[in-house]
Amino acid sequence: MTSHIMPTYGRLPVTFTHGKGAWLWDDQGKRYLDALSGIAVCNLGHAHPAVHKAISKQSKTLIHTSNLYQVAAQEQLADALTAKSGMENVFFSNSGAEANEAAIKLARCYGHQKGITKPEIIVMEKSFHGRTLATLSATGNPKVQKGFAPLVTGFIRVPFNDIAAIEEAIAKHKNCVAILVEPVQGEGGVNIPADDYLNKIRALCDEHSLLMMLDEIQTGIGRTGKFLAFQHNGILPDVCTLAKALGNGVPIGACLASGQAATLFTAGMHGSTFGGNPLVCSAALAVLKTLEQDDLIAQAEKKGQKIANAFREKLQGNAQVIDIRNKGLMIGIELSEPCAALVTAAQQQGLLINVTNEKVIRLLPPLVIKNKQIEFLVKTLSTLIQEHTQPM
Ligand SMILES: *Cc1c(COP(=O)(O)O)cnc(C)c1O
Question: 269-326 pLDDT, tens per residue?
């Protein structure tokens, strides 16, 4: 049968019917360890009872009213997110790209308030910010942009993890109003910058009155071993975007702001029909509560270290393994050769992984992954890597 879905994804020929924690089962009854969490979405694992309870309870009373009225769950979620992050207020969207759209609009508003009529935002090479026109224009990957010209203007691109390049760009572009960056680049290949990279960006933003805007859509919600990755640096950005794991699979995004950035949007300047409705906010509230109750963020730190070390041990001496790096449970294993074939090979062994930027195996296991599951992951994948890199 021909599919009637637009072929925007190259899909593996597997259909899942149910899950529990880090496990998924397909329609043939085969079990898989999910070391990708639906791309950093299901941080609490699949079918988490707290999320199930929250959305089933909420759906019995109200799923949606409108942002034309007060929404109690949205107020509660904004209270919780600002308390946990140190940010001041929140705009709720339905996805990551939309959260970044809000951030980009905030930066432009900020520029206009300063009398800059053509504001520009510094963005990074190898970045990923989404698939809408503005966010794909901000994205540093020609493959994402190809075929969609004319792109949205107003972005200045510099290499990632290069403070001197940012300084040069600021000196050269007088219309620069903001810097948008991921604390760890996810789609770009699990690229972890220098420990003080964000601190230096914060200082530059202060010096030049730019908005520091962090895309924490992949790094947020405990993934890197802190609630938000910038909390490793003891700084506060002006704008921070979230999505992916915020609802553990229920679609919700958020754009958080502090300081002047929190004062820019007034009634009528931005909006979303679904954004922050009672159903999605009840899921996100359950996620935040569970992360705390089960101390999952500290576990992300410990388990990430454990997994990375185990791979280092198993793969030591393999000359085609260039680097094994992690920030919490955001893990990259970089090979010297393209390795997309490993995705199918792993799937056949009952393991779900991802390869990004052609040569980087990306692992984003749920924060609830158990020790036995970690053992299965390390054993299965390291064997596959050895076979792939040292063919008989
Ligand atoms: C996934 C992702 C996005 C886009 O989120 P969508 O919900 O797919 O629109 C943006 N930025 C980063 C860093 C991401 O990982």
Answer: 999 999 999 999 999 999 999 999 999 999 999 999 999 999 999 999 999 999 999 9
Is 34 one of the annotated active-site residues of the chain? no
For ligand 1, whether the C-beta of 140 sits within 6 Å is no
**Is the CB of residue 95 below 6 angstroms from any atom belonging to ligand 1?**
yes
244 counts as catalytic: yes
- Does the structure show a pLDDT above 90 at 391? no
In ligand 1, the atom with minimum distance to the C-alpha of 131 is 9
Give me ligand 1 centre to Cα 104, in Å.
14
Cα–ligand 1 centroid distance for 119 (angstroms): 23
* Domain stops at, among 252, 268, 293: 293
Residue 390 has pLDDT above 90, yes or no: no
Q: Kindly state whether residues 283 and 224 are assigned to the same domain.
A: yes
> How many whole angstroms from 355 Cα to the centroid of ligand 1?
16
For residue 48, which phi and psi values (nearest 5 degrees)? -65, 130
Q: Which of 91, 128, 155, 230 is catalytic?
A: 128
* Token pair listed for 193: 């910058």
Alpha carbons 180 and 213: distance in angstroms, whole number? 5
Stated pTM of the model? 0.98
Q: Which amino acid is at 104?
A: I
Domains identified in the chain, total number? 2
Chain segment 109-136, per-residue pLDDT in tens? 999 999 999 999 999 999 999 999 999 9
Ligand 1 neighbourhood includes 249 CB (under 6 angstroms):
no
pLDDT of residue 1: 74
Is 105 catalytic? The answer is no
Query: Is residue 372 located within the same domain as residue 254?
Result: no
The helix/strand/coil state of 89 is strand
CA proximity to 80, closest of 71, 89, 67: 89
Residue 366 half-sphere exposure, CB side, CA atoms within 13 Å?
27
CATH of residue 265: 3.40.640.10
Q: How far is the CA of 218 from the centre of ligand 1 (A)?
A: 7
> What pLDDT score does 140 carry?
98
